[in-house]
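Researcher: Please translate sequence to C-alpha cells.
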Amino acid sequence: MNALEIRESRKKLGFTQAELAKKLGVSVKTISNYENGEVIPESKTDLLHSILSNNTLNESAAEYHNPNVFREKLLELQEKIKVRKDYLLDLQNINPKNTSKIEHQKEIINVLEMRLDLMMNSNKELQEDREIISPTSKDEEEN
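Model: Translation complete:
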C-alpha cells in the first residue's frame, strides 16, 4: 500500500488522520508521514491494510493476540534477519573496504536479534501461562 492509497482509503472510509492514528495506535504525525511516503514498519503494515480495507479491527487485533499467529510472524522476522545477516557477510567478503558501514549494519541486526529473542521468550511464556490458566481438553474429560 503506497502513500496515495493510504490517504485515499482513509478519506473513502471517512476517517480523519487522528481517527486512523487512534485505531493504529500511533500519532497523527506518523499517519501524516505514512501519507507522505515514509516507510511503514512491518509491525503496522498488516493492521493498517486491514483497517483501510474495511476489515474489523477486532479481527486484526485478535490475530496478534493469538500466540501461534504471533509466533509465526516472529519466525518470519527471524528468517528475514538471518537473510540480511548472510547478505552482509557476503558483502563483507566481496568488498572488505566497506567494513565500517557493514559493522554498523551488523550492530543493528544484533539489536534486532536481541529484541526478537525477547519477544519470542515473552510469547512462549504467554503460551505457557495460557496453558496453566485454561483447562486442556484432557483436564475437561477428567472432570
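Researcher: Any highlights?
Model: Residues 56-60 have pLDDT under 50 and may be disordered.
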